[in-house]
Amino acid sequence: MEGVACASFTSSASKSLSFSSLSQSSIITLRQNYHNNTLKSKSPRKLVIRASSGSSSGSVVTLLDYGAGNVRSVRNAIRYLGYEIEDVRTPKDILNADRLIFPGVGAFASAMDVLTKTGMAEALCTYIENDRPFLGICLGLQLLFESSEENGPVNGLGLIPGVVGRFNSLNGFRVPHIGWNALQIAKDSEILDDIGDRHVYFVHSYRAMPSNDNKEWVSSTCNYGDDFIASIRRGNVHAVQFHPEKSGDVGLSVLRRFLNPKSQGSKKPTQGKASKLAKRVIACLDVRTNDKGDLVVTKGDQYDVREQTKENEVRNLGKPVELAGQYYKDGADEVSFLNITGFRDFPLGDLPMLQVLRHTSENVFVPLTVGGGIRDFTDANGRYYSSLEVASEYFRSGADKISIGSDAVYAAEEYIKTKVKTGKSSLEQISKVYGNQAVVVSIDPRRVYVQGPNDVQFKTIRVPKPGPNGEEYAWYQCTFKWLYVPKVNGGREGRSIGAYELAKVVEELGAGEILLNCIDCDGQGKGFDIDLIKLISDAVSIPVIASSGAGAVEHFSEVFMKTNASAALAAGIFHRKEVPIQSVKAHLLKEGIEVRI
């Protein structure tokens, strides 16, 4: 399917809406109800190549934010570098911009729908064709191509020859492509000058491939099964598939180079040894209010977060914003917040947690995940809020990914029963609008021993050590925490579904990643449950994050060497400074495991 020539958008622009006239719910509706663009195709027009825009001395950057996903991080990165932001509200704002950044987030089709209905598509084409300073990020790169296979085929802006297609998971590579990967520089790119051999952060399921037709555009590639386009440059027009605002100091250097091409980094780039996708080390912060009403980071032993003292107070391991900032400086590849005492009857009323996200994203430029309370609900006034609206508020507050727990269990149980995808579960709704790479499903299983594999209907494993009654097999029963019954079995209920079965179903329903906990190992410091992690990581084609049980650096190398886990998460050992993040990474490097440094 050929792409739509930019001239084809003129009729839409003449009837365009301004961004300011669209409410968030309107934008969500536009994105959900997108139908394939059927405008007549024309060949892309030639771009005018101008001289470098390096002489521009203004401190204002124009940002094209069409209301999807986490653009706050891009805003914070721009402000961190000392620039002011002017938002696009009408197509004219694009045409008048000195420098334009387009951080595309979400799904290709819904983004094109919003751009077309608001008249921004034609203005974007005119701006880029005139070789004005432009930086597209992630989807902001993909939309420049002729079309995409995502929920399509769907027409793009048609500026660059090529079709955006999905990664092939049949060759053993996990989709989405999530994590820190290496670039192969193809030509002078200007904005990539300070990267060196260091990793940058990717999170996407679709990519554009280099070809003879688009080779004059390609400035770098990345290998993930095949070489795909990681960045393009032609004159003053740049776009990157990775997220500079989530790539730490390396990513900030990319933004700095675009904003001021003649600038030099404040220090000489650190030379790395990036060659492929790195294993990720994630710091997790369990956040809740203590008995005094203060928001604190805590950590439980097998999910019990109270001290075993007479006072029985909530264990306080620090303030969430400060700890997240420290872990970023220490080299954490991601920071994950678990809101374990959210306003369960009114998630959007949980202002302290939203503020944590907002403040953290001001100075932490790696991915942020948040979980807890993301579901449909009705407030005290009888107003209904969908899980999509709840997730949208978390994204706007600084989250890059959201984590769903009990709601995913309910959705999986219903699907197993009916074999019907309703599209109404939080998992399905959010992944449809924001893409499956934005949705993590948290699984909390416990080991249940049985005498033989036929004793239960769920997937079993043969255990290396017999159970308490000599059992040679076990299955992993999924659990979730009761929202309103905190003291019954630790507030946790076992469900009639195994971790293996749940993982397979949530992948089919739209999950992009699995956070795999283990109740038996949590807080024990004796290592991850290798049997469980191997079982699940071998069963699905999406990335799996190993969690629960880390107590030493050797536990991280063990889980990466013995399973197909893409990342390993820890909490207590980092909070208590028992095992520093840098020590974990130094050990992994010594063992020949690629990590970001």
TrEMBL record:
Annotated Gene3D superfamilies: 3.40.50.880, Aldolase class I (3.20.20.70)
GO CC annotation terms, alphabetical: chloroplast
Residues reported to bind substrate: G373, N517
GO BP terms, alphabetized: L-histidine biosynthetic process
Record flagged with keyword Lyase: yes
Name of the protein: Imidazole glycerol phosphate synthase hisHF
Pathway(s) this gene product operates in, as recorded in its UniProt entry: Amino-acid biosynthesis; L-histidine biosynthesis; L-histidine from 5-phospho-alpha-D-ribose 1-diphosphate: step 5/9
PANTHER family per UniProt: IMIDAZOLE GLYCEROL PHOSPHATE SYNTHASE HISHF, IMIDAZOLE GLYCEROL PHOSPHATE SYNTHASE SUBUNIT HISF/H IGP SYNTHASE SUBUNIT HISF/H
Localization (cell): Plastid, Chloroplast
Cited NCBIfam families: hisF (TIGR00735), IMP_synth_hisH (TIGR01855)
EC number per UniProt: 3.5.1.2
